[in-house]
Amino acid sequence: MSASSSVQQARQALGQRLRDIRRDSGLSARALAEAAGWHESKCSKIQSGRVMPSEADIRTWTAICGAPGQAADLIATARNIEGMYIEWLRLERSGLKRAQESVRPLFQRTRRFRMYQSWVVPGLLQTPAYTRAVLNTIVSLRSAPDDVDDAVAVRIERQKVLHSGDHRFAILVEEWVLRTVIGTPDVLIGQLGHLSTVSALPSVSLGVIPLGSPRGSGWPVESFTMYDDAQVNVELVSAHLTITQPAEIAEYSRTFSELAGIAVHGAEARSLITSAINALG
């Protein structure tokens, strides 16, 4: 599932609820538009999800349809949709450290983590040198404030969750993640050695999806992390997408299970890590 389609589905669901309210009132789209002083096409665009209604639009819609009591819930839904898609520049405007700290409460309350990464080693399994290389790339690409050292310290501190409480981590990475040099070859060699060590922790299940593995229709194009069955965070080039709708979370859960089914684990996964280290000389 792409990020844009996920947000669009949420907008369409909101539009469907507004359409049902209008139909229950017995009003046509034209009659509602006339009463609200809108162009008739505005109603159809809202109902189809092509236009996101403002809070004032929602209050007007429900009042005309005789359902003002539903306005508060619909406005809360609209605010959640708007919050789903957060530009990286907005998230990182006050510095990379703040972006790293923002997820701390989420990590503390989550018990079951499921992570799929298609481009880098997941943050919880990174070495300080690898993290620094990743964050330096972000600073360069996005012109984010350069507080990399502070951000690295926060991310490494967060890794204590691997050794505390009853947290469980199921982590999947593509094999090409093991072979993509971020920083320098020496940084990657150190990272791969650490990855092999961490994969032996009782709380961690590491799967590597071998190059050339046949793919099903559910193969994602984005990396994502599942926090219990409550939330999915999706990493995009330009934004950070938060998903909380149960049906969409279930779709990511199915996709994760499909990917886990084609991944190798245990000794086979560590063999692929060793092969990647050897390829670096």
TrEMBL record:
InterPro entries reported in the protein's UniProt record: Cro/C1-type_HTH, DUF5753, Lambda_DNA-bd_dom_sf
GO function term, MF aspect, one: DNA binding
Coiled-coil zones: none
SMART domains: HTH_XRE (SM00530)
Transmembrane segments: none
CDD domains associated with the record: HTH_XRE
Protein's name according to its UniProt entry: Transcriptional regulator
Species name: Kitasatospora aureofaciens
